[in-house]
Here is the input.
Amino acid sequence: MSAPIRVLIVDDHAMLRAGFRTILDLQPDIEVVGEAGTGSEAVDLAGSLLPDVITMDVQMPDMDGLEATRRITADGRVCASIAIVTTFDRDDYLFDALDAGASGFLLKNAGPEELVAAVRALAAGDGMLAPEVTRRVLQRFAAQPAAVRPALETPAITMTGSAALPSAELPEPLTEREAEVLRLVAEAWSNAEIAAELFIGEATVKTHVSRILQKLGARDRVQAVVLAHRLGLA
Here is the structure.
């Protein structure tokens, strides 16, 4: 058996932490290894416990979840994926969370199965956006003129025909198939759906996605989606 997914729960409400723990501890492949009630505690515990996934509230005393996320993702010792879990369906929280390095965004009115699915997705490196906010992410980046889109560390990518051709600064260009897979990932297609559409195996899709993330310098699928729309690939 593979090791369970190690989760750190961060929220300033003890009852909510207890609820999350109950839901997650019922899963045979998930283990809650710690709880934090403030952003500062979250930063400290992330560094000592080294969890695989962190569920992070936004509004907390001492340090909010967005700043805690920035500090945790900047810590080279910590490889945890962070899911922002908040009551507030606000665009500023959503986009600040993505900029801070979060790999997921979930609302607290989500069902238990969505929380479990988000933890598993993040542990697998897939990222997770609540259905309510996915469309807003795509619309925001699609609506921004290229000239005013945020600057990226990743070099610009231009489209020629059906292939994506990165600038010479990228060590390797995206292949035509990788560009095709990236566009489908940006449209929130699952690996199974992409495999069926392109008549290839799911394992092949996973390989393509891994190569795309490596070439773009993206942390996970969520960041790849943001990059794809900022760069005009979708």
